[in-house]
Amino acid sequence: MELAIKAREMAYVPYSNFKVGAALLAADGQVYLGCNIENAAFSPTNCAERTAIFKALSEGTRHFTALAVVADTEQPVPPCGVCRQVMAEFFDPEMPIYLGNLKGEMVQTSLQTLLPGSFTKRDLGMGERND
Length: 131
Ligand code: THU
Known about the structure:
Blueprint: H1 2-8, E1 20-26, E2 31-35, H2 48-58, E3 64-71, H3 81-90, E4 97-101, E5 106-109, H4 111-114
Parallel strand pairs: 3-4
Antiparallel strand pairs: 1-2, 1-3, 4-5
Residues 13, 16, 18, 20, 36, 38, 45, 47-49, 77, 79-80, 83 line the site of tetrahydrodeoxyuridine.
């Protein structure tokens, strides 16, 4: 969560002024940081969670053990639906996901709670692993 707070400072958010940070722990111990990156056309905006996940993937890492996300929110920040779907592609349903805010509140959850019944590669008749 401390690293997610650091990553949040890099957010590029001229439109919403809503900074989000993420820290993704890979199975090999490497941590990938992410922030949200907005765009004048709005829809190309990338959330902090997906920035961290895509950074890891683009460097050859596909196995993860924990994610922390933080924003300056009343309640610990909930990931958007698009990010949940991207997480469903790569995260174990029980992998710990820590959601926090700047007040120091934090909840532990997982994809099985955040996106139950998700559409995955299993529904395409494909295997479990992302090798
Ligand atoms: N955002 C994230 O980065 N992660 C979330 O989980 C929720 C939303 C970003 C997208 C946009 O830059 C800003 O927050 C407001 O929606």
